[in-house]
């Protein structure tokens, strides 16, 4: 059974950093392109970053480009999102899913950026 479990969220001050983890089970993380998504209060869920299955090429939405870095560890079967220079507008629940977001959503992990 395919499963992704997000972790690593928390409360951080503006300008701070967090590293989110997406632990995969039931499949190898390099078999599918995996994306990070987020949903802010009162807003629709949006895709913010993706790592390609075949070559590991990464993609970022403009809102996070230059601040966030997606990576994967095949040995640990996990995908990560390093978030630097966090802003209050990054506050959201963060999720991982395949690039088409076609799997069931997990619980996500809450990121709150506030002073």
Morphology call:
globular
Helical residue percent band: under 10%
Using DSSP, what is the number of strands? 10
Which spans of ≥5 residues are poorly predicted at pLDDT below 50?
A: none
For the largest beta-sheet, the strand count, sense and barrel status come to:
6 strands, mixed
Report how far the terminal alpha carbons are from each other. Answer: 40 Å
Tally the helices. 0
Order of helices and strands: EEEEEEEEEE
Mean pLDDT: 96
Q: If strands are numbered along the chain, what order do they take across the biggest sheet?
A: 2-10-9-4-5-6
**Percent of residues in beta strands:** over 45%
Radius of gyration over C-alpha positions, nearest whole angstrom:
13 Å
Structural class computed from helices and strand pairing: mainly beta
């Amino acid at each position: 059974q395919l499963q992704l479990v997000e972790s690593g969220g928390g409360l951080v001050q503006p300008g701070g950093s967090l590293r989110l983890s997406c632990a995969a089970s039931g499949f190898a993380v390099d078999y599918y392109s995996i994306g990070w998504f987020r949903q802010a209060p009162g807003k629709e869920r949006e895709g913010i970053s993706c790592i390609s299955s075949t070559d590991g090429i990464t993609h970022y939405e403009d809102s996070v480009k230059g601040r966030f870095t997606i990576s994967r560890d095949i040995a640990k079967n996990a995908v990560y999102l390093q978030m630097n220079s966090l802003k209050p507008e990054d506050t959201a629940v963060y999720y991982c899913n395949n690039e088409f977001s076609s799997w069931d959503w997990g619980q996500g992990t809450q990121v709150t950026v506030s002073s």
